Amino acid sequence: MNRSGQKLKGSKREAKARTYIMFLLMLFFFTSTPTVAQKTYVTTGDKIIITDGKNVRRHTQSNGINSFNIEYKGTIEVTDDDKDVKSISPGGYIEISKTTFGSRRSILIEASSNGLRREYYESRKKVDYEPEGRKWLAEILPDVVRSTGIAAESRVNRYYKQGGVDAVLNEVGRLESDYVRSIYGKILLQKDGLSSNDLVKAAKGLADKINSDYYLAEMLKSNSSQFLKNDKTAEAYFEAVSNIGSDYYTAAVLKEALDNHQASARSMTQILNASKNIGSDYYKATVLSQVLDQDNANDHVVGEIISCTKNIGSDYYQTQILSKAISKKGLSGSSSNELLEAVANVSSDYYMATVFSKLVENKLDNDVNIKLIGLLDDKMSSDYYAASVLSKMVKHQDLNDQAVARMAQAISNMNSDNYASSILKNASESRNLSKSTLISLVKAAGGIKSDFYKSSALQHLAPLVKNSDAEVKAAYTEAAKRINSDTYYGRAMRAID
Question: What top-level branch of life does the organism fall under (predicted)?
Answer without folding.
Answer: Bacteria
